Amino acid sequence: MRRAIVGAGLLLGLAGCAGTQKVPTEQLVNSEVTIRQAEEAGAAQVPEAAQHLQWAKEQTHEARRLLEQNERDKAALYLKRAEADAELALALAREAPARAEAERVRQQVQQLQQNTVQ
Is residue 30 included in any domain, yes or no? Predict the structure, then answer.
């Protein structure tokens, strides 16, 4: 009975290790994909988005270094931050054209109002 319990514990431990080793790899891919999406959306041309994009790249680079040193838990934290910054860069890059269009329309409305008053 004791051997069965020890064996089950070992199997669970090994399964847990296998699961945690996969997580940083998936996170690495996810952060790199999101970084590419942000770049393609023009994040580098939007100052606030560019800063978050840069942070995402730096954190991904640091996570790679940590993975090489087998520091998976630390790497996972860096990758979470990297993905969050990349997602924010992507959102800000996508928002910029809409914000510019809204400002253009606001100015047109203001011009029309001024012309109507005169």
Answer: yes
The residue segments making up the domain with residue 43 are 22-108
- The pLDDT of residue 5: 53
H/E run at residue 50 = helix 47-68
CA 115, CA 73: separation in Å to the nearest integer? Answer: 63
The pLDDT of residue 2 is above 80: no
pLDDT in tens, 21-39: 556 889 999 999 999 999 9
State the Cα–Cα distance between residues 57 and 85, nearest whole angstrom. 9
Nearest to 96 by CA among 38, 55, 35: 38
- Give Cα 74 to chain centroid, integer Å: 16
Instruction: Let me know if residue 90 belongs to a domain.
Output: yes
- Angle in degrees, CA 81, 87, 91, rounded to 5: 145
118 lies in a domain?
A: no
Tally of structural domains, the chain? 1
Integer Cα distance of 57 and 32 in angstroms: 8
Q: 46 is written with which tokens?
A: 């939007």
